[in-house]
Amino acid sequence: EDPGLWAHLGGDPQRVLDVAVDYMELGDWADAIDVLDRRYPVGEDVHSEPGALAPQNHPEVAYYRGYCRELAGQSGRGDFDAASRMSTTYVFPQRASTIPVLEKAISVQPRDPVAHMLLGALYLSGGMADRAVEHWDAVRRLQPKTPTLHRNMGMTLIYALQDPARAAEVLGEGMSADPLNPDVYLALDQALSLLQRPAVERLQALERYPRSASLPPPIVFKQALALVEAGRAAEAEKLLAGRFFPREEFGTNVRQVYVEIRQQQALQLARQGRCGDAMDIARRLGEPDAALPFTSDGMTPFLEAGRAQYLTGLVFEACG
Q1: Helix, strand, or coil here: 292?
Q2: Among 63, 192, 283, 287, whose CB has the most other CB atoms within 10 angstroms?
Q3: Angstrom distance (rounded) from CA 242 to CA 233
Q4: Where are the alpha helices (DSSP H) in the chain?
């Protein structure tokens, strides 16, 4: 009867599933159903991760409930149906015992996109990329606007299955189905790069991000580098102006991108025989640019980096 117990369980659906699985291993379906079918408290007294779903709104909890009803000789269709309408945001299946649960749900309702989505994630976490993609393909047919679907499937095709052509197709769909997910555009840029598509084509894909005034920094960086590669370095610099670039652990620093842009511009000029302009860029690279406040400090580590030194050497070489 301790209310603190229910607040504790309500703070994380995985705790509820832990208890339910213990009952299931004993064959105690009634007590498992009781734990999975409760309305857990929400509010200030419940401590949970930001954005986490309450157990009663968590699809995995509902799928387990339906599975237990089926094993107890009842119908789990109502629970499976409820789960199929729940959000998959921040839902990451992790137990091997979840595989038969989701497979049972799909056998009862083969057109359940949520069960297919979660089972795909579970198979991928176990290294079964082919089976993951099979289930995500089903979601593409049933509910193509499922958040992160195209991002997950595209990156799996790139990294696990080495199929950038199919990844490009899936991620191209993702720009319409999940248009505000920056990972869709970044993964598509990578797929097109692996396919050796021209910079202009990659740039056109990146420019489809719908909020040009508030582009995520990684997309800004990719766009800027694609502009340089397309011979439009002046536009690349302007793309960096007037934006805030937060520091991110293990992320790309805007200064690194700026140095790359300027050095690639200098190299292009040098190869065109315009050595005066090229050498001017190379020699003045560390000077602050009033239009780009981030150039006023912190530039030295990026100017002294191995790649920066190499590109400067190429400029000097091209100009004799």
Answers
A1: strand
A2: 63
A3: 17
A4: 3-10, 13-25, 29-36, 59-71, 77-83, 98-108, 113-125, 129-142, 149-159, 164-177, 182-194, 199-206, 217-229, 233-240, 254-271, 275-283, 300-303, 306-318
Q: Given CA atoms 121, 126, 127, 131 in this order, what sign does their dihedral have?
A: negative
In angstroms, how far is the first alpha carbon of the chain from the final one? 84
Four-CA torsion 268, 272, 278, 282, nearest 10 degrees: 40
The structure tokens 């200098």 sit at 266
For helices 217-229 and 254-271, give the axis angle rounded to 10 degrees. 10
Q: What's the predicted TM-score (pTM) here?
A: 0.88
The span from the CA of 88 to the CA of 91, in Å, is 5
Query: 175 with 163: CB under 8 angstroms?
Result: no
Least Cα distance to 301 among 269, 267, 253 occurs for 253
Whole-number Å distance between alpha carbons of 218 and 280: 29
- CA quadruple 209, 215, 219, 223: dihedral positive or negative? positive
Give Rg (Cα) of the chain: 26
Please give the structure tokens belonging to residue 43.
Answer: 């509010």
Quickly count helices (H) and strands (E) in the chain.
18, 0
Q: What is the pLDDT of residues 288-299, one digit of tens each?
A: 999 999 999 999
- What is the distance between the alpha carbons of residues 36 and 191, in angstroms, rounded to a whole number? 42
Strand partners, 292: 289
Model pLDDT, residue 164: 98
Q: For residue 2, what pLDDT band results from cuts at 50, 70 and 90? A: confident
In this prediction, residues 102-131 reach a mean pLDDT of 97
Distance CA 320, CA 311 (A): 14
Q: Are 65 and 36 in contact (CB under 8 A)?
A: yes
Tokens describing residue 270: 């040098």
